Amino acid sequence: METLLQYINIAGTFAFAISGSLTAMKKKLDPFGILILAFVTSVGGGTIRDMLIEKRTAFWLVELEYLYVIVAGTIFAILFRKKLSYLRKTIMLFDSAGLGLFTIAGVEIALQHGFSSVSCIILGTITGSFGGVIRDIFANEVPVIFRKEIYATVTVLGGICYLLLRKMGFDFILVQLIPVLMIIVLRILAVYYKWSLPLIIVNENEDPERL
Amino acid sequence: METLLQYINIAGTFAFAISGSLTAMKKKLDPFGILILAFVTSVGGGTIRDMLIEKRTAFWLVELEYLYVIVAGTIFAILFRKKLSYLRKTIMLFDSAGLGLFTIAGVEIALQHGFSSVSCIILGTITGSFGGVIRDIFANEVPVIFRKEIYATVTVLGGICYLLLRKMGFDFILVQLIPVLMIIVLRILAVYYKWSLPLIIVNENEDPERL
Amino acid sequence: METLLQYINIAGTFAFAISGSLTAMKKKLDPFGILILAFVTSVGGGTIRDMLIEKRTAFWLVELEYLYVIVAGTIFAILFRKKLSYLRKTIMLFDSAGLGLFTIAGVEIALQHGFSSVSCIILGTITGSFGGVIRDIFANEVPVIFRKEIYATVTVLGGICYLLLRKMGFDFILVQLIPVLMIIVLRILAVYYKWSLPLIIVNENEDPERL
């Protein structure tokens, strides 16, 4: 089981690296810029988590396998950049897997450091989604997570689910698998059915009666 | 007195949450995006301070009351978004209170970690004003603090005032209140009278004699 | 020798401060904004390095001389902003010296914390080049390092060279000087001959046969 989760984790890193690379190529960055954007997209969320918690060195400085996976993901994205537009669904699947796994990994690490439930869910959300935030800031865009696809909302729900299952004493494998699958499925449904949170409109000139 | 300061602190967090929410709504972010922007505006400065200092966990991971105040501030801003344009002065008052309190809190925490005066003032300025910097970067704008209202200048003056009063052995309540009030008053005067530092113009094509 | 390296280090900080100030003046920031941009450009890379490593306080909170050099560099840039367009080559020389020295300093600090070669090179690259990344993000632009002048590539090569020389047991002075000079020379040659990594073009509409 440990190995299955590890495979998903590597697939998530790989997928985030591809997502970062594609953004970088759209922005016409040079190959090194592509690698850096792949890197920050993959490790950004976990790095911020580690910087927020006292006594944590950024995980990728110690677990080097992530770096190799990122390099592989970047090369893959460069080589198959033509085909990747047809693979959008596959990428989104991997990206959702990464989102789910990273979120739950973040919640678990926060729990091990003794934080409260609320802090754990926030650290999980940061782990899962802030890599994409840094990617978008580096690419000089308003982070997509703030704008659509209820990206962060899904991670919060997954984090809450994880804490509930863990408290109820479920088997550890189920405790991990169910919220990860839940995040993946919800995210895919959200993209497929274009779910989004309602927009809140502010317009000082608009007619108050019409809202 | 402790409670008075705590009230101001909570009011500051509340005000920064409103300020972040209003920016988010102007950028048409979804409700979760609004909450995140409120969050980073409120806790961003203190978080960077805590990450710069060895052996500090980000304060809001431990003191959860800040999170609840931020959620309340965000809901308040969403509900009263129509009215808040009339409340601009009130918001600015709260925002200035937050700026003053956060700055002094940052200076005090830095002092407790044994840093030099210069480092304390810098950490105070970061605590007071970098929440707004992150807010503006997330909203894809050049941070307003760099451009007008002598925002950061006021915090530096407040920090210096705090260190001087502390060294002169004033009563602890006065040592805290005077610089906070000074920052609030200076900031309000700066906005009211449109004070700003002189712009330094660089234009390689312009006539050197005319400058 | 220690003093020579220290002079280069100070020159690097000075040059990065000038580089940040010039960017800030182009963006019409106010004097305090100029100082902050000079500050983050100079210390940004080393600060991120220190935040990534457990048990490191940001270096400039302890070694105050960097702050004074930054203030001096900012004042210099403001006073001589007219002349600095003629001094572009001089600035680039200092900037490259800073890049080289900061990179090697970053690699060395990482080694002392017991990280692997790959992590050391990454931390070196971050130390040398992420000050410029933060400068560009604050100025609301896509970081220049991602786009041209093989900035980051040169630091990676310098870092590898440093590790190789160190392993081969060369004299400590040579181990430090050779990679620093190598980064400086390569960077200057890259700017002079307009070296850059090949762009990878992604255009979903373009004819696949033509690529």
What does this protein structure show overall?
The structure is a homotrimer. Chain A is mainly alpha-helical. Chain A contains 7 helices and no strands. In chain A, helix 1 crosses helix 2 and helix 5 runs antiparallel to helix 6. Chains A and B meet through helix 5 and helix 6 of A and helix 1 and helix 2 of B. Chains A, B, C: It is a multi-pass membrane protein. Chains A, B, C: It is found in: Cell membrane.
Write a brief structural summary.
By secondary structure, chain A is mainly alpha-helical. In chain A, 70% of the residues lie in helices and 0% in strands. Chain A is globular and about 50 Å long.
Q: Topology of this protein?
A:
Three copies of one chain form a homotrimer.
Chain A: H1 2-26, H2 31-52, H3 65-79, H4 88-112, H5 117-138, H6 151-167, H7 172-192
Organism (chains A, B, C): Maribellus luteus
Protein name (chains A, B, C): Trimeric intracellular cation channel family protein
Domain Glycine transporter (chains A, B, C): 7-81, 93-166
